[in-house]
Amino acid sequence: MAQAPAWSGARLLLRRLRDVMAGQGSAEERLAQTVRVIAGEMVAEVCSAYIMRAGELLELFATEGLNPEAIHNTRMRVGEGLIGDIAAHARPLAVSDAWSHPNFSYKPETGEDIYRSLLGVPILKGGRVIGVLAVQNKAERAYAEEEVETLETVAMVLAELVTSGDLVDPGESIAGDTNAIVPRRMEGVRLNPGLAIGKVHLHQQRIVITRMVAENPAEEEERLREAIAAMHAQLDDLIAAHDLGAGGGELADVMETYRLFAQDRGWIGRIREAINSGLTAEAAVQRVQNDMRARMREVTDPYLKERLLDLEDLTARLLMHLQGGFGQQMEMPEEAILVARAMGPAELLDYDRRKLKALVMEEGSATSHVAIVARALDIPVLGRIPGVLDRVDNGDTVVVDGDNGQLFLRPGADVLDGARASIEARALLRAQYAALRHLPAQTLDGQSVKLQLNAGLLIDLGNMAETGADGIGLYRTEIPFMVRSAYPDVPTQAEIYRRVLEIADDKPVTFRTLDIGGDKTLPYFDGGVDENPAMGWRAIRIGLDRPAMLRQQLRAMILAAGDRHLRIMFPMIAEVAELVDARRILDDEMQLAQDRGQTLPNRLDVGTMLEVPALMWQLPALISRIDFLSVGSNDLLQFLFACDRGSPRLSDRYDTLSPAVMNFFRDLSRSTAESGCTVTVCGEMAGRPLEAMALIGLGLRSLSMSAGSIGPVKAMARSLDAHRLTTFLDHHSQSPNRSLRTLLKGYARDHGVVI
Ligand code: PEP
Ligand code: MG
Prior knowledge:
Layout: H1 10-22, H2 27-41, E1 46-53, E2 57-64, E3 75-77, H3 81-89, E4 93-95, E5 117-125, E6 128-137, H4 145-162, H5 170-173, E7 184-187, E8 189-192, E9 195-202, H6 217-241, H7 249-262, H8 265-276, H9 281-298, H10 302-322, E10 336-340, H11 345-349, E11 356-361, H12 369-376, E12 381-383, H13 388-391, E13 397-401, E14 406-409, H14 413-435, E15 450-455, H15 458-461, H16 463-467, E16 472-476, H17 478-482, H18 490-504, E17 509-512, H19 540-545, H20 547-561, E18 565-570, H21 576-595, E19 603-610, H22 619-623, E20 628-631, H23 633-640, H24 659-672, E21 678-681, H25 689-697, E22 702-705, H26 707-717, H27 722-731, H28 741-750
Parallel strand pairs: 9-10, 10-11, 11-12, 15-16, 15-22, 16-17, 17-18, 18-19, 19-20, 20-21
Antiparallel strand pairs: 1-2, 1-6, 2-3, 4-5, 5-6, 7-14, 8-12, 9-13, 13-14
Bound molecules: phosphoenolpyruvate and magnesium ion.
Phosphoenolpyruvate binds at residues 372, 474, 476, 515, 611, 632-635, 682-683.
C-alpha cells in the first residue's frame, strides 16, 4: 500500500483557498476552482464537492478528476454509497479500497472506476450536514490523520460558500441544514393554545463568523489568549457574584466544573492547533466545536452529554469574547416566532410584543412563568421539542399549532393555506366569544360563576372590556418589577397601581404582593441561590424577612387606591402566623396613612393565596382572619405531588384532574361554604374549560384566568348543569384511576357541555 505523499500543508492550502473565495467569478466557478486547488495541494487525482439539495439528495456540484458531465447529474441519497454514508453519520471516512467497502455504490457516469482510495468529510454548518467534500486516488493508499484534519478544515471554510446563497437557492440552503431544505413537522407539548404563522427569530443568536482564514496566525493566537483571559475573568466574577465559593452546594460544583473546562488544555490546545493550520481564532473555535458536535452524536452517557453541552456553552462565550461583545443583534421580523432552549419570564418581556406571534421552546412546562407570561401576551406556546434549535434558523417560515402541539417548519403551500384559513376561523370564533361578553357566566341551573382576569402587564388590562371579565382576580405585581432595571420606588409603584385601578374602573382588582424567587428573578435583587428555589426564599418569606420592601409596596397600594376599594393578597402563606405578621404590617401602613391625613380606601379586603398545602389544615383559624382565599393551583399541585412545576420531564406525570386534586377542591369548597370567605382558583387550570367545568362541579364559583380563556370558559359554564355534575363527581371521588379526564370529557360530550 502506498504511503501518504508529502504535501504542502494546511496553511498554504487555506491561503490559496482564501484567494479563490475572494476572487472573481460566480459561486459555482469559485467552487470549481476550489476543488482544483484542493486536488493539487493534497496530491489527489480527484476532488469533488457534493451539495445537499431538497429531499436530502447529495448532488455533485464540482469535481476535479471525475467526468465533468456528471456535475449536477450524479445524485445520491443521504446514506447511499460512501458519500451518503459520510453525510448520514456526519463524520469523515477514509478507505484505502473503496470498492471493497460494503457501502460502496458505483456511479458509472462519473468514471470513478479507476480510483481505489477515498477520503471524504462532511461539510458542516451549525452542526448540520450541508454537503460532502471528497478526494480520491488511483492507488490504494492510507490517508494520514493530518490530511483528514486538513480536509475537514477546508470543508469548514467551504461551508461559507455553500450557504452564501449563490450556489443553491437560499430557499433550499437556509442555515445549511439537511433538514432545512425539506418541510418538516415536529411534535411538542401545548403550553398555550392558538395558531400562528411567522418567521423564526432565535432567542440566542448564533454568532456569524465572516473571516475564516487568518492573515497572521501569531496575531490570532494573541486574540485567542486575550479572549480566554477575559472569559476566565468573567466566570470568576460570576462565581464570586453568586457567592458560590466553598460550601456553595451543587450549583457551585457545576460552576467549578464549568471553570475547569474553560481551562481545559485539551480543548484550548485543539483550538491553537486549528489556528496553526491557518484559521482565524473564531474559525478555529468553530472548527473544534464541529468536532465536538460530531462526538456528541455518539455519546449516550447523560453525564458526558451534559459536559459536552457545557463546552458548547463555553464555545459561545469564547466566540462572544473574540468578537468583543454579544455578536450581531438580529433584527426581529415583523411576525416573529421566538425559538429558544428555555427562557425566563423577564427575557420574554424584553421582546417587542407587537411583533411576537408565538414561542417555541426545547424545554418548558405549562405552569412555568414564561408560559404564563406568554399566555398574558395571548400567543401560542409550544414546549418540549427536543432538537428544534438544530433544525431552524433565523427567517425560516414556521406554523405554530399550539392547539395540537405541532410545529411545521418551512411548510408547503397546502399547510400554509390551511393555517391561514384556520386563523380566519378562529377570528370568527373569537367574535362569537366576544358576543358573550355582556352575558352572565351562569350555568343552566342558575349558578353564577365569577370570571376574572389574571394580569400583570398593562396590555392585560386592555382585555377587561373586550372579555367582559368581572374584575382582576390576580394582579401579579412582580411582573412590572421584572421588566424594570431598577427597584421601583413608592411613587413609581403607586403610579402603576393607580393606572391598573383606573383601567379596571369600578371592577375589583386583587393586588398580590411581590412573589419573587423561584424562577421570577429581579435583575437588581440578589435573593441568593436556593437548592430548590420553588420551595426556597420567595414571596411572603422575603416580604417578612425584608419588611421594608413589603411595607413600601403596601404603602404604594394604599396611596394608589385613594378612596377606592382595595384588595390585597399575600402569596405563599404557609401558616396563619405569617398572615398575622403580614397583616400587622398592612395595619401599620393604614394607620400611618391615616396619621398623614391621607385618603383611605373605602373598603379594604385582605386575602391569601392557597398554594402551600399546610394551609388546608388551618382553615378555621385562617378564614376568620381574611376576606378571601385564592387557590394558586400551579404551586399547590407541585407541592401536593412533590413535582416541580417547571420540569418538562414531570409535566405529564400527574394530572390536574386526578382524584386527589378533585377531592382537595371538594373538601375546600365544603369547608368554606358557610364562612362568607370567597374562594377563587387563579392557577392555570381555572382557564381550561374542562378543568373549569370540574371546579364548578366541585362547588367553586369564582375563577381567574388569562384573557383568552374567558370566552371559552364562559361558553362552557353557560352550557353546564352544575348540580348534575356535582353528583357525577361525588360518585367518582374514590376512583382508583390516575385521572378523571377521560370520564369528564365523556360527561361533557354526553351532556352537551361546550368544551
Ligand atoms: C399559582 O401558583 O397557581 C399562581 C397563580 O401563582 P404563580 O403562578 O404566579 O406562582
Ligand atoms: Mg404561585
